[in-house]
Amino acid sequence: RESCRAAFVEQNILTVVSLYIQEVILHTVSTEQQRHRDIHHHYTRHAADFALPPHHRTLYSKKPSYIGAKLFNLLPENLKNVPPQKLKKQLTNWLLKNPFYSLEEYLNKTGR
After folding, report:
1. Do 112 and 74 meet the contact criterion of CB atoms below 8 Å apart?
2. In 3D, which of 74, 76, 78, 88 has the Cα closest to residue 19?
3. Residues 6 or more apart whose Cβ sits within 8 Å of residue 90
4. 58: Cβ–Cβ under 8 A, 6 or more apart, which residues?
5. Of 3, 26, 2, 4, nearest to 94 (Cα)?
6. Per the confidence metrics, is the pTM higher than 0.85?
7. Rg of the chain over CA atoms, in angstroms?
């Protein structure tokens, strides 16, 4: 079996997983959820990150707003600090260069 990963990059096509990642991140940014910079009034290393509220149910962690915030927090710093108007284009370009076949692959590649 051969991987189609190179074909996705050459043809500038997003994988289904990359499309999902893009949509939930853009949804989260558009809803203007609370970020760490809104909580702390001094500089913190993760000021651009979204605050992830504690939860007790697995169902909550599957909500688009929660998973979008979690995936956004794992993005490289240069993408986190992009203005919302330019985020879609730069996020798309980054996802085109890094085709993901699963969320686990995304979490492993971007995880801290």
Report:
1. yes
2. 88
3. 79, 82
4. none
5. 26
6. no
7. 15
The one-digit pLDDT tens for each residue of the chain (112 residues) are 678 888 898 999 999 999 999 999 999 888 877 665 656 666 666 666 777 777 777 776 777 878 888 898 889 988 988 888 999 999 999 999 999 999 999 989 887 5
Cα–Cα distance between 42 and 96 in angstroms, integer?
Answer: 35
Give me the sign of the Cα torsion angle 61, 62, 67, 69.
negative
Domain ranges of the chain: 5-110
Which amino acid does the sequence have at 40? H
Cα 24 from Cα 16, distance rounded (Å): 12
